[in-house]
Amino acid sequence: MDTKTVSINSFVKGLRAGAYSAAEAIEAFLENIKDKDGDIHAFLETYREEALAEAARVDSVGEVKNKSLAGIPVALKDNMLVAGHRVTAGSKILENYIASYDATVVEKLRSAGAVIIGKTNLDEFAMGSSTENSAFGPTKNPHNILCVPGGSSGGSAAAVASDMALAALGSDTGGSIRQPAAFCGVVGMKPTYGAVSRHGLIAMASSLDQIGSFTKTVEDAEIIFDVIRGNDHYDATSVKSVPETKGKNEFIVGIPKEYFGEGLTPEIGKAMEEVIARFEKLGFKTKEVSLPHTKYALSVYYLVMPAEVSANLARFDGIRYGRIPEAADAETLRDIYALQRGKGFGAEVRRRVFLGTFVLSAGYYDAYYAKAQKVRTLMARDFEGAFESVDVLLAPTTPTTAFKFGEKTQDPVQMYLSDIFTIPANLAGIPAISIPVEKYEVGSGKLPIGFQLMAPHFREADLFMLGKKYDEAYRK
Length: 476
Ligand code: GLN
Fold this sequence. Notes:
Helices cover about 40% and strands about 10% of the residues. With about 475 residues, it is of the alpha/beta class. Helix 8 links the parallel strand 7 (about 250-255) and strand 8. Glutamine binds near residues 152, 175 and 305. Glutamine (GLN) binds near residues 127, 173, 175, 204 and 305.
């Protein structure tokens, strides 16, 4: 089996036709990991024995015939729980933490026949855009190992791009699926907030977090979404969604002008012109629209997100969660906290906990947090307004291609700017998908560029419909 050209769809076909067994296929992917991951470092852990046993089980019980993900090797960002396995969230504070239950997405993947192949690297607690904030060392971009793979789900993106898994899950709070997907030349899908259960995902900012996928094709993204979506009584924000297409003949693609101004490199600007022309060639009308509050997105995000981070990360106090050896001899409770959180958390996590605690504190709450929530509502209204006259929005995923290691680590604001085009969809809770402009072969010497499609709440089906047409015409 050729791990390079296979997609979920073609994999399952080959399996059903008896071209290979699930066990042979999993072995091939594990071999790739062995060969390549020394350079790339996409994985924090691989589940070799378990994956082979699971594949053998899939082969023997005949799941091959009727399960949509039979034998598919899926990697998970290491902020999702798999019972009995370590889950680090990329942090030293959870280095030795063993999960006691499976995340809902893990249960769903398994019941569709998928084989969990291992855990991928991420920025600590999903905070970052390059994986440089992982306590376990960065992941490299498979297209150029001097460049970052994006983040925070950089390990998942790199794993799929370098054929070490056929699909991977990530989480997207402000772009952590779409931005690394764009940097690594794969498809990254962030569903509507609430479409996929977050039970068993280590929370970053609960009103923004969403689990989604990395795949090679849009069709594969749809297959994964169909497996992982749905209501879950362990996550009160999850809803039963039945994705529908608009079902009308005329379908208009909106071009939000605020995403095409300053900050975009000429190379990406040119690629976007080409993508717009391609959609027109495919028969879609395009129309310029305006989302006037876009300019506040980053400021709103860096108030709302840290506030939620500071609340969510309070539990890592060295008593309930998180034990680092240095704190074993602490004498007072205060010392335990100071040692645990001072030494257990990296600089970026500490920065956001401080920021969040500050914006929530009495006297500043109204000026910062409450104000940010109001502007967030205005941003959501911008989208509602735009979707009155267009069906989806098309924009670049990132302002630049993958940058070099160290290029933005000294200046957090420069790093934050890499998410300027992805954050608005999280603030509004709408679904968005990043699709590579071309088919980017690893080793071709090119750095990938991604474009993004955004749709109204629960209109994932429109994203898939449009994306599949694009894939079919331009990424074969
Ligand atoms: N890169 C963004 C941040 O640092 C988004 C992170 C994410 O989506 N998890 O917050």
